[in-house]
Amino acid sequence: MEEYLQYMKTLRSQMDDVEDQAAKVSMEEQMQLTTIQTLENDLNSAISETKRLMEEQMKNAEAQVCSLILEKAEKDSFFGALELIDQERINLSSKLIEKSLSDVNAKLQQQQDWVYSHCTHMELEEHGMVKDRSGEKRGKASFDNHLSMGNQGNDSRKNLMNMLDSAKAKLDEILQMKFELVIENCKTKQAIEQVNLRENDFKPELRAMDIKRLEEEFNALLSDKAGETEYLEDSVFPWCLKMYGVAT
């Protein structure tokens, strides 16, 4: 009987140990489940935060790319506008030079026509005066004198015509050189403007000074044309007429 009681006591003690062990295991399982749940929550939070940051970075990158595209489009449009403006300047300069050349040619042609008409009128008057003279001997001498004067008049007229043609050719050459110089100046100005737009390290005052000087030089080249034309009309033509004794 005592052995049975001892056996039961030992069995109860073992059962208590098993229950305590089961309770500890259950507690550990609960703690592990709690830890796992916490880790899952932290992982989900980290995934959500990472996704949010990636979306924000993608939006920022997209906005930056769009900004760069717009900036490039604006620059292309700006340079295109500059190119159109410079092309329009070249076209206007070309038309202005062509018009000036046409006006000068017309004036030269008028001068040539006037000289030819004046010389012809003088020859006719001299020929009429010879017919009114009497006497065979005096008439012969006058006729010889008239032929000599006529030959001199023809030579003078030819020389004057040659000088006018030479002046006209020289003027055409000057205007052609000026036209080429204006075109080259416009191209140089366009290149300098594009370089200045890319070099932002320079002060605006320096860039403005360079462009202003170029514009002054461009305007001076255009204004020289009127001065050369006036010089030819006021100096060269009267000098030619004076050299050959033609009254204006």
UniProtKB/TrEMBL annotation:
UniProt superkingdom: Eukaryota
Residues forming coiled coils: 1-64
Key words of the record: Coiled coil
Protein name as catalogued: Uncharacterized protein
Organism field: Pyrus ussuriensis x Pyrus communis
Taxonomic lineage of the native organism: Eukaryota, Viridiplantae, Streptophyta, Embryophyta, Tracheophyta
